[in-house]
Amino acid sequence: MISKRIIPCLDVQNGMVVKGINFVELRHAGSAVELAERYYNEGADELVFLDITASIEKRKTLVELVKQVAKVIRIPFTVGGGISELKDIEALLGAGADKVSLNTSIVKNPSLISEAAKRFGSQAVVAAIDVKNVGSQKKVFVKGGKEETELDGLAWCKKVNELGAGEILLTSMDHDGTKNGYDLPFLKQVVENITIPLIASGGAGTKEHFLDVFNVGVDAALAASLFHYEELTIKELKQYLQSNGIRVRL
Amino acid sequence: MIALIDYGAGNMASVANVLDELNYEYIITNHESDISKAAKIIFPGVGEASSAIKNLHLTNLFTMLRVTKKPMLGICLGMQLLCDKSKEGNTTCLGIFPATTEKFDETKIKVPNMGWNQIKYVRQSKLFSEIPDEEYFYFANSYYVPVNENTTSICNYGIDFCSSMEKNNFYGVQFHPEKSGKMGIQLIKNFVEKC
To answer: Chain A partners of B17 at a C-beta cutoff of 8 Å?
Structure first.
């Protein structure tokens, strides 16, 4: 049987890892390459790198960082942040990334998902979706959470699935950085409505939060500050999950 | 020297990084002349089967790879292309293994199969020297090869499928050893040193 994945997320700015609370107030957490190597050795199943400044400044991506990271880790990793063209995706995958995460660009141009999936395989295409409560609705936000769109969260998840994304990375902006737990009701609703794997993001603060989120049926759970500041080690987390009946790679 | 075949569908950098780490000499190539000088062939692959086969024809490698006597390791799509046929794009493949690549049933299980899964040995293989049974490897595939007479290990994702197979000088693994941590490195080492 396939195991549940634990994915540290590294928000990167100029090669350094930073982490915000509710998408703002950045704190520094060290070099991206060094942290990646540490997580690889500690038993992370996969890593995600998001160039958080990219979609705001339109800065072209992370090819150099990807090359350096690919030299030191032997687990899959995803890169995202400001990726809007097939040639960017080709360069990142060619440098050693396994997947790209697409966010703002696919809201503007949904056919990018199907074009990328056709060319590189759906397993290389992660649709990253940031949602936030607006009134009673879950709305999709883009540009690093700065711009509200007309899209409904659940409807957009179903749409990216239909267009050929290989996975969804779903971040709850209301939960992100709070350490109060993942957005379980919404994640459960999404799991029940898509046919591709789902990565939960936003709100992890304790081991129990991971157990809760795997019990609603997500395939992978992402966290950042919890791991960066060594409040919880990956090994300790995985041992806890295994003793509670969740299949993990130890 | 190892020939790492670049036919426009592989994650060359990741396999090359492992070969660098192990200090093996290799060449990334799609030229028959380079491959004929190499001792072994690694045939990686991600992407779509019918366009991959088209590229093998365009680079004149299709026949050469079918008849080579050199040890050859197909990874992921590379393994699937060693079969008779693929239902992905309904394409005729290299025809080494008598099997047809099928798609996982999306109505029963999430597709792609993405993540770490355990493999179970059904036959002894030099490829798995010093790797314990039921070890985890990283998979990322929507299509699979059914269990067949050449299968050396099986994996379960909704159904049992072939996670590795071998026949004469041909070896295939459905998972990505280059992305499967220390055990994956060991597997590549085994291929180079023992197969």
So the answer is: 70-71, 96
Active site residue A98: no
Interface test with B, best of A74, A161, A167, A219 (most B CBs within 10 A): A74
Q: Which residues from B are below 8 Å from A96, CB to CB?
A: 11, 13-14, 17
ipTM score here? 0.94
3-state secondary structure of A9: strand
Residue B19's SS3 state is helix
Looking at residue A3, the DSSP 8-state letter turns out to be P
- Tracing tokens 């190499």 back to the chain, one arrives at B38
* Cβ-contact A113, A164 below 8 angstroms: yes
- So what's the architecture of B2-194 in CATH? 3-Layer(aba) Sandwich (3.40)
Q: If one looks up domain A5-243 in CATH, what number appears?
A: 3.20.20.70
Q: Pick the catalytic residue from A45, A51, A88, A130.
A: A130
Residue B10's pLDDT band (cuts 50, 70, 90): low
Q: Which amino acid is at A52?
A: I
Residue closest to B178 by CA, chosen among B186, B168, B190, B170: B186
Nearest CA in chain B to A42: B181
pLDDT at A58: 43
